[in-house]
Amino acid sequence: MELTVVNLEKKYKTKPVLKGISFTIEKGELIGLVGPNGAGKSTLMRSILGLEEIEKGQVTLNGYHPTDSNYFKYISFLPSDNYLYMQLSGYDHLAFVATIYEIPTSEIDAVIELIGIRSYVNQPVKSYSYGMRQHLLIALSILTKPAIILMDEPFNGLDPTSTIELKQLIRTLHGQGISIVVSTHNLDILEDLTSKIWFIKDGHLITDKLDPEQSTAFEIKYLYDGDIDQLLLTSGYDYELKKNSILTNPSTDIDVYLKWLLEHGVGIQAVTPVNRRLEEVYKEFYEV
Ligand SMILES: Nc1ncnc2c1ncn2[C@@H]1O[C@H](COP(=O)(O)OP(=O)(O)OP(=O)(O)O)[C@@H](O)[C@H]1O
């Protein structure tokens, strides 16, 4: 599976929203898509899904374009809007999609088991909670065995239980080799799910903001009898003092810093890499 986007541009009337976006997603990648309100996340997803006309640029999935019906064999969408039929049951929805895609009934049952919706799948959707509806939408999105699923803010409105279950489900689908793109405003959830996080800013897609090489700080457990804060102030390096440990700034050369500490009588007990929090990167990048 390979999704390739080359120089994608999108305008609403005269307002440019996507300004030449290019990327490739390969089989089994789990990508988080981040950006403030109005940045263009939904527009990007809708364009990839063929829901927006592509005026400039190219989108290709396994060699097919969104103007070819074969394209839709490989991709599915978990929309942020609920488009379910209230009077119909979850099973009715699944059976409907199965008929269109000529999927055997046994596969509906397998999906019901995987998503864990057996106990309510025969009830009308109007009786479902928000989380139950979300589960049904996910069941629908995987029934067609897509190679890639785009999820637009799938955690919105979920309680902690459903959030944990959805995270687990995303991991399971990812473990099965499905590529997933998740857009969400919840940075903690995203950080927990993947280290591959893409940012949208000013119509551009930034894919290397969370380079692990650049984002690793270190936590140093130390032993020191004197006033450590006083000493570190003289070092010229940025740091954060925690209980019995020093958190370095990601730009600090750790070897040089450790040498400096030792030379100034600080005992080193342990040095542990700490990834920079996504929220910090976000704040810096979007100047929050
Ligand atoms: N159908 C449309 N017609 C005109 N403008 C639109 C349309 N859809 C989106 N826009 C505009 O395009 C920009 C990007 O919107 P989009 O919904 O893609 O952002 P988003 O990153 O998904 O935002 P959010 O996080 O709020 O969902 C916004 O300025 C929005 O007002």
Automatic annotation (TrEMBL):
Pfam families assigned to the protein according to its UniProt record, in alphabetical order: ABC_tran
UniProt superkingdom: Bacteria
Alphabetically ordered keywords of this record: ATP-binding, Nucleotide-binding, Transport
Single Gene Ontology MF annotation: ATP hydrolysis activity
Coiled-coil ranges (or none): none
Record domain ABC transporter: where: 3-227
The protein's name in its UniProt record: ABC transporter domain-containing protein
Lineage: Bacteria, Bacillati, Bacillota, Bacilli, Bacillales
